[in-house]
Amino acid sequence: MSSVWDDLNLLLDSSDSLSITSSARGTIKEKPGFRPAEDAAALRVAIEGIGTTEKTLIDILTQRTNAQRQLICKAYQEATGRTLADDLKGDTHGDFEDILVALITPPTQFDLQQFKQAIKGAGTSDSTLIEIFASRTNNQIKDLSDAYLKETGRSLLHDLQSEVSGDYGKSLLLLAEGKRDESPNVDAAKAKAEAMVLYEAGEKRWGTDESKFIDILCCRSVPQLRQTLVEYKNLTGKTLQQSIENEMSGKLEKILVSIVKCMKSVPAYLAEHLHEGMKGMGTTESILTRIMVSRSEIDLMDIKVEYKKLFGCSLYSAIEVRTKRQRKAVSTLTHSSHTQILIHSLDFLSSSFLCVSLHLHFPSLGSDLLFH
Asked: What is the DSSP string of 259-299?
């Protein structure tokens, strides 16, 4: 590996191909001694009893990997003749229902649901689309596209094209093709040359040639772009993000800045997205659910670290404060249960040293010991 990788803290995915995510830094790990039939039986009792036992649902579904949850779903259906998803939807409500169902949904299917929701109805949730396509790997995007085609009979790119337009649309569609270069090699001369191209297309001229930014940022490999960011700073004295913010506006600025942030660190980008979501009311729960469920087996540990570095408090504390404010406005079991499950999914493994202890003793330790 070159020193560039060491300096930029490159993270590798599970296939060992260069990626903008990491599979080794998730908080959820396989449950030792896993017995799907026993878990399915416990869930059945929790759901069919007098009043749903939320604690059982939380303890089981946040302490198993998604692959293990799929086996639980199979065992549950074999035992009851019903799907676990349908029973959860019938016995839980609101945000709590959403996050439980998300946890038992296969990752690609979960991305598919998020994508469909983002383009559903009047108006498009550009923030969700940008988050998905800027932070996912080529393989994840291909899986999403294949799942969309299988379910709808239509091309994801075709339907997405009808929802977006202009330079922003061109950028998003390039990302959605899932064809970003994944070569591990860094061409230093090319990085320096493309830094100059970006400078001449933006800061150096009157008006901006957006196409140059789009072509380079949406297609080059992660290590190549990271080196280009370094060369751009050396050349101009500014970060590329600063130049984009100075030269552009609206949705195009947002997507290009998001790409730059993801090139530097997907966990930091998602930590920032979580923070922005928790500033207001309404969309917070969907953002929390999407990011924490989709990243719980990839890099949620790193997201927690970046959140603390960026905002000076733990992600747990931020969720807790946010939910306390909500409880004052709306004191419901839904919010309470939703918060418990988010907190549980934050920290099964604070370090490899504590791995066994946390799996064995997590329920009795208390959140303050685990997350602060």
From this structure: HHHHHH-HHHHHHHHHHHHTTSSSSHHHHHHHHHHHHTTTT
Do the Cβ atoms of 95 and 334 come closer than 8 Å?
yes
Residue 169 in tokens: 């649309």
3-class secondary structure, 32: coil
List CB contacts of 122: < 8 A, sequence separation 6 or more. none
pLDDT at residue 52 greater than cutoff 70 = no
- The residue among 206, 225, 223 whose CA lies nearest residue 215 is 225
DSSP state of 352: G
Question: Which pLDDT tens digit goes with each residue over 191-240?
Answer: 999 999 999 998 877 768 899 999 999 999 999 999 999 999 999 999 99
Q: Of the candidates 112, 204, 205, 124, which has an alpha carbon nearest to the alpha carbon of residue 169?
A: 124
Is 333's pLDDT higher than 60? no
CA dihedral of residues 109, 115, 116, 122 (deg, nearest 10): 170
- Number of other CB atoms surrounding residue 33 within 10 Å: 6
CA gap 110, 127 in Å, rounded: 17
The amino acid occupying position 166 is G
The answer to which of 80-84, 89-93, 128-132 has the lowest mean pLDDT is 89-93
Q: What is the pLDDT of residue 95?
A: 78
